[in-house]
Design brief:
The protein is mainly beta. Strands 2, 3, 4, 6, 7, 10, 11 and 12 form an eight-stranded mixed sheet that branches. A hairpin with a 7-residue loop joins strand 3 (27-39) and strand 4 (47-59). It is built from one helix and 18 strands. It has a domain at 2-59 and 111-144 and 162-223. It is 3% helix and 42% strand. The protein has one helix spanning 176-182, and strands at residues 2-3, 10-15, 27-39, 47-59, 61-64, 90-95, 103-104, 106-110, 124-127, 140-142, 145-149, 158-171, 186-187, 189-193, 200-204, 207-208, 216-218, 221-223.
Length: 232
């Protein structure tokens, strides 16, 4: 597999935050996040309840009137709902998510221009801070769609691919030590398939930052959050 660097491709990285639509035709959105739960009773130590380490890459998007989604085509001047009077303008041709309401009233749409559709096997975590996290890690799924837009065009609708790749690594309530061994603060490297360039990938470098967690003993000292009831 060839990996290339393209100066025109940029990536908007964030912690647990995704934009609805990319800001330009040569950008796509990436987010990484850790979700951990803890529970503490009146007495005792905080108990680890499990969690996940998640990565999402999304290229392309659309804005539609959600209440006008339908399983049948809505004509212009639809009298059943004044909000939906403009009628259906888009149709979900294919989607890995699956939906019965495939006709949409779209107000804005932007196709995927950077990430390749239908190539989830090329997405992978290839580098991370020193840890026991397996690498390469290819536990990705694809939640992509193809939308036919402008159904009333005299020349016919245009296909708009919308690409989304997800990866989630779960940790059960008895896996806190595994989480601590695998997920470290620092920069991670993922490779993702490039559109119209078979076998070629682009790298993105999201980071994980320290977060407050439940109290535990690390390196001989107690670290993290624990609620204490003051004595009178």
């Amino acid at each position: 597999m060839n990996q290339i660097t393209n100066p025109l491709i940029t990536c908007a990285a964030a912690i647990a935050a995704l934009s609805v639509m990319p800001s330009s035709a040569q950008e796509f959105d990436v987010s990484t996040s850790t979700h951990m739960s803890y529970r503490q009773f009146r007495t005792g130590e905080p108990k680890f309840g499990g969690g996940t380490y998640d990565f999402i890459a999304e290229d392309g998007g659309f804005i539609d009137v959600r209440v006008c989604r339908s399983d049948v085509f809505r004509p212009q001047d639809d009298q059943s709902n004044s909000i939906c009077a403009p009628g259906s303008s888009g149709f979900v041709q294919s989607s890995t998510l699956g939906t019965n309401r495939r006709y949409l009233q779209i107000s804005a749409i932007q196709p995927a221009t950077v990430l390749g559709l239908g190539r989830v096997d090329e997405a992978s975590l290839v580098a991370a801070p020193a840890s026991k996290l397996p690498r390469p890690l290819k536990n990705f799924r694809e939640d992509s769609s193809v939308i036919n837009y402008d159904l009333r065009s005299l020349t016919g609708p245009t296909e708009f691919p919308l690409v989304k790749y997800n990866s989630s690594r779960p940790y059960s309530s008895n896996s806190r030590s595994r989480y601590q061994d695998e997920i470290k603060t620092g920069t991670y490297q993922y490779v993702l398939p490039l559109a119209n360039r078979e076998g070629q990938t682009a790298s993105v470098f999201p980071s994980i930052f320290p977060i407050l967690e439940g109290s535990t003993r690390l390196n001989g000292s107690e670290q993290g959050l624990k609620f204490i009831i003051p004595k009178d």
